[in-house]
Amino acid sequence: MNKPLLKRLAFFSVAALVLVVAVLATLQMLAKKRALESLPVNTKMGGNFVLPSTLGRPLDLSSLHGKVVLLNFGFASCPDVCPLVLARLRQVLREAGPDAAKLQVVFVSFDPARDTLPLLTAYVQHFSPDIIGATGTDAEIATVAARYGVVYLKENNGSASGYDFAHSDYIYLLDSQGRVRKLYSSDAKTADMAADVRLLLRADNILF
């Protein structure tokens, strides 16, 4: 094979590689643009927190940077909404498939008097061993709840437990930088949540 031909082949090989890199960069940019358009950053709520957790050490939310987080607030004695939400989040983990390695579900209890860490551990692990539970003092939880716009009201219910909570039940989608990107109602479709998780993972170049 003569040298001019080798030079031409080398040139076309380099040109093809550059083209592939350019196409991948363009696709990545489009994925990020799509994520920003459909899942805009919510600058009015959110933020880091550190709370005692079922990990056996305090959960620093910022330690989850690099993962997409689905965050929910509730309490283990909740008779209806909380277990249904956690069951749905378990299903999202299943539907995420291999992407679940980059997805973390966090459940924060605002009932520390009853939701001790051993009880909370058993509660979240009933749904999935991959769910992290967290709680804290009343003041700590109130601070975190305020950052995320969570509303909860303690109510006497006349039962043996003595009280219940009326509360908001949103599921918060956080990107790999810990920013709130979307709020879901408690009956949101699990397929929609899983699709948004995959979109953020692609846009953040965690998966491509």
Characterise the protein shown here.
By secondary structure, this protein is of the alpha/beta class. The protein has one domain: Glutaredoxin (3-Layer(aba) Sandwich). The chain has 5 helices and 9 strands, in the order αβββαβαβαββββα. It has helices spanning 3-38, 81-96, 117-127, 138-147, 190-203, and strands spanning 50-51, 59-60, 68-74, 103-109, 131-134, 152-156, 163-167, 171-174, 180-184. The strands form 3 sheets. A 5-stranded mixed β-sheet has the order 5-4-3-8-9. A two-stranded antiparallel ribbon has the order 1-2. A hairpin with a 6-residue loop joins strand 6 and strand 7 (163-167). The chain starts with a helix and ends in a 5-residue tail after the last helix. The model has no long low-confidence stretch (mean pLDDT 88).
CATH H level: which superfamily? Glutaredoxin
Rg (C-alpha, Å): 22 Å
CATH topological fold name: Glutaredoxin
Work out the strand percent.
Answer: 15-25%
H-E string: HEEEHEHEHEEEEH
How can the largest sheet be summarized?
5 strands, mixed
The low-pLDDT segments are none
Give the % helix.
40-55%
Q: What is the tally of helical segments? A: 5
Find the structural class using helix and strand composition: alpha/beta
Average residue pLDDT: 88
Give the N-to-C terminal Cα separation. 38 Å
Oligomer: single chain
Number of strands: 9
The CATH C-level name is: Alpha Beta
Shape descriptor: elongated
- Any idea what the CATH architecture is? 3-Layer(aba) Sandwich
Describe the strand arrangement of the main beta sheet, using strand numbers. 5-4-3-8-9
